[in-house]
């Protein structure tokens, strides 16, 4: 009970858990082109030669963003995050990798740049959606900067929104514990404090996407969901 004091903070963001971010980012260093095509890229919906601008929303220390830039050498890839330490580390990683077509930007005031309206062919959100304290604000901004024919690829843990249907799922059990101390506090770290976390589940995520005037492409109940403007 000492972890959950009544007079404690409502939540905390990743600025207070940079070591956790680095740990989460470690696996993304191995995400080569094969992994991107099989687990993230909107294969069948978007040809690589039509992509000129990519946004990695919630890029963290930037390992996946750099891999996306390597995968799409003719595109400009932007990584944005609200965490200053993550962006500083991402810039260090860019310098080490010597990748010219990637740029990292600190997302201030929770808004993407006004000049980016209808700029991006492809937007990625990897392990971000369920952490957002204000997903309505984020999805509105993402819709604004997405081209009319652009696609968003969002990845979240594949957990059912009806918790009873996760019975016997050892992965879900582990993820719930992780979410209690990492994702849920992040989603409660500022107003309006959506408090989603991993328990939000892919069904609730799908309904949220559709309720914001977006169209889901293909299976809506996987960890990966692809969507575009309706």
Can you describe what's shown?
Residues 52-166 form the Methyltransferase domain. This is Methyltransferase domain-containing protein. InterPro entries: Methyltranfer_dom, SAM-binding_MTase, SAM-dependent_MTases_sf. Pfam families: Methyltransf_31. It comes from Mytilus galloprovincialis (Mediterranean mussel). By secondary structure, the chain is of the alpha/beta class. It has one domain (14-229): Vaccinia Virus protein VP39 (Rossmann fold, 3-Layer(aba) Sandwich), CATH 3.40.50. The chain contains eight helices and seven strands, in the order ααβαβαββαβαααββ. The protein has helices spanning 18-26, 33-39, 63-71, 84-97, 135-145, 170-181, 183-187, 201-211; strands spanning 53-57, 76-81, 102-106, 120-126, 146-155, 214-217, 224-229. A seven-stranded mixed beta sheet has the order 3-2-1-4-5-7-6, sandwiched between helices. The chain is globular and about 50 Å long. The N and C termini lie far apart (46 Å). The model has no long low-confidence stretch (mean pLDDT 94).
What is the topology?
Layout: H1 18-26, H2 33-39, E1 53-57, H3 63-71, E2 76-81, H4 84-97, E3 102-106, E4 120-126, H5 135-145, E5 146-155, H6 170-181, H7 183-187, H8 201-211, E6 214-217, E7 224-229
Count the DSSP helices: 8
Largest sheet: 7 strands, mixed
Number of domains: 1
- How does CATH name the architecture? 3-Layer(aba) Sandwich
InterPro entries: Methyltranfer_dom, SAM-binding_MTase, SAM-dependent_MTases_sf
Protein name: Methyltransferase domain-containing protein
Domain Methyltransferase: 52-166
Pfam family, one: Methyltransf_31
């Amino acid at each position: 009970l000492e972890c959950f004091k009544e007079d404690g903070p409502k939540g905390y963001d990743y600025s207070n858990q940079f070591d956790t971010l680095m740990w989460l980012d470690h696996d993304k260093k191995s995400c080569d082109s094969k992994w991107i095509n099989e687990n993230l890229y909107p294969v069948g919906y978007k040809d690589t030669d039509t992509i000129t601008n990519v946004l990695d929303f919630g890029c963290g220390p930037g390992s996946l963003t750099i891999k996306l830039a390597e995968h799409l050498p003719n595109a400009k890839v932007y990584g944005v995050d609200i965490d200053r330490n993550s962006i500083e580390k991402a810039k260090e990683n860019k310098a080490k990798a010597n990748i010219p077509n990637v740029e990292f930007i600190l997302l201030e005031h929770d808004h993407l740049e006004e000049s980016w309206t209808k700029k991006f062919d492809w937007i990625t959100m990897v392990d971000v959606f369920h952490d957002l304290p204000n997903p309505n604000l984020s999805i509105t901004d993402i819709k604004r900067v997405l081209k009319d024919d652009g696609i968003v690829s969002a990845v979240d843990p594949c957990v059912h929104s009806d918790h009873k249907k996760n019975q016997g799922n050892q992965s879900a059990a582990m993820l719930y514990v992780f979410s209690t101390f990492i994702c849920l506090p992040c989603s409660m770290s500022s107003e309006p404090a959506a408090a989603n976390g991993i328990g939000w589940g892919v069904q609730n995520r799908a309904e949220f996407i559709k309720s914001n005037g977006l169209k889901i492409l293909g299976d809506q109940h996987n960890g990966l969901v692809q969507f575009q403007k309706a």
